[in-house]
Amino acid sequence: IVDVKGGPNEGLDRVGLMIVVAGWVRTLRAQSSVTFIEVNDGSCLSNMQCVMTSDAEGYDQVKSGLITTGASIWIQGNVVPSQGSKQKVELKVNKIVLVGKSDPSYPIQKKRVSREFLRTKAHLRPRTNTFGAVARVRNALAYATHKFFQENGFIWISSPIITASDCEGAGEQFCVTTLIPSSREAAESPVDAIPKTKDGLIDWSQDFFEKPAFLTVSGQLNAETYATALSNVYTFGPTFRAENSNTSRHLAEFWMIEPELAFADLKDDMACATAYLQLYSCMQVRYILDNCKEDMDFFNTWIEKGIIDRLSTVAERDFVQLSYTDAIELLIKAKKKFEFLVKWGCDLQSEHERYLTEEAFGGCPVIVSDYPKEIKAFYMRQNDDGRTVAAMDMLVPRIGELIGGSQREERLEYLEGRLDELKLNRDSYWWYLDLRHYGSVPHAGFGLGFERLVQFATGVENIRDAIPFPRTPGSVEF
Ligand code: 4AD
Ligand code: MG
Asked: What is the Cβ-side half-sphere exposure of residue 332, based on CA atoms within 13 angstroms?
């Protein structure tokens, strides 16, 4: 359908062509002498209106009521100018084939259904306008991300999903264990097949890796090893957090983009994040506007009015940059009733982040730097003041924290000292520490939550609608 209707004159240059459309019926309207079928094949938001009279091959299947909303069909016909006002062209059908029937219980009918309801039908929701559009824009953003880094000399690294170390040191990892093949069949429940000691604890020595293993919370530590060999690298893959956060911006499984720059400090890191987002906003929003125009117009009308203007604004303005200490002062001066008390040393909550970017700086992205070391991860480089670290978070309107990054501690003695202070086991990080023995360099990087970017670019309010199959506390299906 996009090949026919996606051009500048919405298909008029395709008039006269005979084409085949394979897709799913959105609606079917039978009148006395003609039947109209709206078909969508997911290539774009637009349906193809197919007009059929009784002389079309296969018409009996339409007449007998076999073809209904949700059915998959194959249609051959000629592109003709449309009589209707909604589209420039339509298909005059020669032949229709029913590929798969749809039961009358098909839940995605024409009437608008709520997002909450659709989350319970995650296997069918990509057939709606909203989720089809989100999937296409998400795809365009992934493509544009690789394009940005590839064009700027970064090398893409695959970081492991199963890992033994906790990058953030926050203990929010999912544990990976094994179902022993011998006991698998005998076991009544999968849990019975996990190797256990006499006391009923997991017997790690019998487990697949012979020690505890986890799903990664971030690919950063692994990316650092490649950055200290290949210079600028990035990862782009799934990450996992067992955070019990039931909010509209947290997932248990989310995708992260993590560039890591060698011979670089915090300023370089901020410049890279800004270039990414601004380029994303000019070139990359340009990219999605050019490549997903119809989908973006849809979001602009139905999901967040004015989103295209908002994104263009981001592209044009210089991002605000201020220290954590200044941000705290500003928040205290705001004399606003925040739910969480603001004082130096506190972690910024999303209400504070949103105040900064939305109210204090009128919708401009804000980079906050140099946070207290107590609220940040062990690997961040300590500043000379002894109480802050070279960290930066980028905050954007509606979302709050989109990016978290830092300059890394490249000095062995500081890094070891920090691990000890936080009571993290040096042995689990031996290889990470080892890097500091051999040609250590100043380096920095950041992580960008891809679903938050999708939220930012499409206006969808809940992060559960920015990923095809959301995983949140108490919910794993599909
Ligand atoms: O700030 P975070 O925890 O930073 C790191 O993981 C670093 N190791 C990244 C690095 O420097 N390479 O996470 C980075 C970003 C956040 O700013 C946020 O956008 C996203 O990942 N994020 C989440 N997105 C969805 N659901 C969650 N539970 C998320 N936690 C973090
Ligand atoms: Mg963070």
From this structure: 11
What does pLDDT average to in each consecutive run of 10 residues of the chain (478 residues)? 92 96 96 94 97 96 94 98 94 98 90 88 95 94 92 96 88 88 66 85 90 95 97 98 92 98 98 85 62 87 88 81 97 91 95 94 94 97 97 95 97 96 92 95 98 94 97 90
Residue nearest to atom 9 of ligand 1 (CA): 447
Q: Are 471 and 428 in contact (CB under 8 A)?
A: no
Cβ < 6 A, ligand 1 pocket: 167-168, 218, 220, 241, 243, 250-251, 254, 256, 258, 401-406, 445-449, 451-452
Residue 472: closest CA among 243, 257, 237, 219: 243
Domains annotated on the chain, with CATH:
2-100 (2.40.50.140), 132-173+217-465 (3.30.930.10)
Q: What share of the chain is helix, strand, coil (3-state, %, to 5)?
A: 35, 25, 40
- Residue to substitute in 256, 406, 443 for testing ligand 1 pocket (most ligand atoms within 8 angstroms of CB): 256
Query: What pLDDT was estimated at residue 254?
Result: 98
Q: Which residues lie at CB < 5 A from ion ligand 2? A: 404
- ipTM for the predicted complex comes to 0.99
Token output for 32:
């006395």
Sheet holding 162-163, edge to edge: 162-163, 213-215, 175-176
- CB-side neighbour CA atoms (13 Å) of 213: 14
